[in-house]
């Protein structure tokens, strides 16, 4: 898959591009840990499935995605006992080119219907040597959602993934900036191999960030080529016409995955989709309503202040989320952690969303450690450390949020809060903007 002769070209461009960014960005980021590259293991051949990850499709199906170097069948065999595959399904295969790079064969197969809270064993393609397994989420609350943004491929990433793996989560939510390939396409392959041990066992639901754009002037003018090819999310099922924004439901939670780097203004396709999607939400079925977006709408860090993707998107869409009583909005982009009180239009509001920035997964650019002082009234807790979050939705009314700092490679709970769903607050039932 990787074209060795082009790697240095990509690396040189990335160095120049990154150096330019550091010259114009006004805040300093401390050094991250070393980059981690995950090569293809020696015991895998060109027909072996690699970079396996899964994602939810509707209430009882799962998309299995993987890559092979050779052309192999887009077929998944699966069952509830190891080595015994009573079911099979077929899907589609695609590939893409980016300058001189050509990807491997990217396979996507949707399997199901599946039973809730059940372990399934599966094999991909024509290769039965590698057996994988996953556990489906429960059909009802409680549910544990892992949350991490701006993940990257560093030593800190390894710590974060290790901590998440030990948390026994049900679904991973990632608000953008996955691989930090930044034009160097072989790094997408390395990232896929890095996250496979987790992403093949639990569904990963992702949205895009600025590092997924990868638009190259003149030479490659299409955005999100690799992201869209490799991370196919269930946008069709939610009525969206773009892999950059969609929604899904799991247990008693309706999740909005919004796109910071595609049109979001009033009248845009994304805006009209969001308006229609929110109108269909049944809070009796999904009492919790949360949203993910890459660029945070609220931010007291010096990093990424005043960007259109934050300011203009908030102006365009915050009213829709407020009217729908969205409980929590998670974001990435800023390489630090910050939790806000319930807020609307820049002010504390008991019926507004809790905004949480979780862009501290382990990226190579380091942490955004400079905050604006004095701290704004709406900011409750902020810290520039790598880590991850967990949201345990206990029942229709209560959820428990914890943020786990990577402290000397141990996951230390540094911030926590009980949250009450806006659906059960009688004062917010009939609110008007």
UniProtKB/TrEMBL annotation:
Catalytic activities: a phosphate monoester + H2O = an alcohol + phosphate
Gene3D superfamilies: 3.60.21.10, Purple acid phosphatase-like, N-terminal (2.60.40.380)
EC numbers for this chain: 3.1.3.2
Signal peptide stretch: 1-26
Boundaries of every Purple acid phosphatase N-terminal domain copy: 49-136
GO terms assigned for molecular function: acid phosphatase activity; metal ion binding
Domain named Purple acid phosphatase C-terminal: residues: 354-415
Keyword Glycoprotein found: yes
Sorted UniProt keywords: Glycoprotein, Hydrolase, Signal
Keyword Glycoprotein in annotation: yes
Calcineurin-like phosphoesterase domain: residues covered: 144-337
Domain of life assignment: Eukaryota
Record family assignment: Belongs to the metallophosphoesterase superfamily. Purple acid phosphatase family.
Protein name: Purple acid phosphatase
Organism this protein belongs to: Kingdonia uniflora
């Amino acid at each position: 898959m990787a074209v060795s002769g082009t790697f240095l070209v990509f690396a040189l461009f990335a160095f120049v591009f990154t150096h330019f960014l550091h010259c114009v960005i006004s805040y300093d980021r401390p050094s991250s840990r070393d980059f981690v590259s995950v090569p293809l293991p020696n015991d895998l051949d060109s027909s072996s499935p690699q970079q396996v990850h899964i994602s939810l499709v509707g209430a009882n199906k799962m998309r299995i995605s993987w890559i092979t170097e050779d052309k192999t069948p887009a077929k998944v065999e699966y069952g509830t006992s190891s080595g015994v595959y009573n079911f099979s399904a077929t899907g589609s295969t695609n590939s893409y080119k980016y300058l001189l790079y050509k990807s491997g064969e990217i396979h996507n197969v949707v399997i199901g219907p599946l039973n809730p809270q059940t372990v399934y064993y599966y094999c991909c393609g024509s290769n039965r040597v590698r057996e994988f397994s996953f556990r489906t989420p429960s059909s009802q609350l409680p549910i544990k959602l892992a949350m991490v943004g701006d993940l990257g491929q560093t030593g800190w990433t390894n710590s974060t993934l290790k901590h998440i793996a030990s948390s026994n989560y049900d679904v991973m939510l990632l608000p953008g900036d996955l691989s930090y390939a930044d034009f160097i396409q072989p790094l997408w392959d390395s990232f896929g191999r890095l996250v496979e041990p987790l992403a093949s066992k639990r569904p990963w639901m992702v949205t895009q960030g600025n590092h997924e754009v990868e638009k190259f002037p003149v030479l490659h003018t299409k955005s999100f080529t690799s992201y869209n090819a490799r991370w196919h999310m269930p946008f069709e099922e939610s009525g969206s016409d773009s892999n950059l924004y969609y929604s899904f439901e799991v247990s008693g939670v309706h999740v909005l995955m919004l796109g910071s780097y595609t049109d979001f203004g009033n009248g845009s396709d994304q805006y009209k989709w969001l308006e229609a999607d929110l109108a269909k939400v049944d809070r009796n079925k999904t009492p919790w309503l949360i949203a993910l977006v890459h660029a945070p709408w609220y931010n007291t860090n010096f990093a990424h202040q005043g960007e259109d993707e934050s300011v203009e998107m908030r102006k365009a869409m915050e009213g829709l989320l407020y009217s729908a009583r969205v409980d929590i909005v998670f974001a990435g982009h800023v390489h630090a952690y910050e939790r806000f009180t319930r807020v609307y239009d820049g002010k504390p509001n008991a019926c507004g969303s809790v905004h949480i920035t979780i862009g501290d997964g382990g990226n190579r650019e380091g942490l955004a450690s400079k905050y604006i002082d004095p701290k704004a009234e709406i900011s409750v807790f902020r810290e520039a450390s790598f880590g991850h979050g967990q949201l345990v939705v206990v029942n229709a009314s209560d959820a428990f949020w914890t943020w786990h700092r990577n402290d000397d490679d141990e996951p230390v709970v540094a911030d926590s809060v009980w949250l009450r769903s806006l659906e059960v607050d009688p004062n917010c039932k009939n609110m008007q903007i």
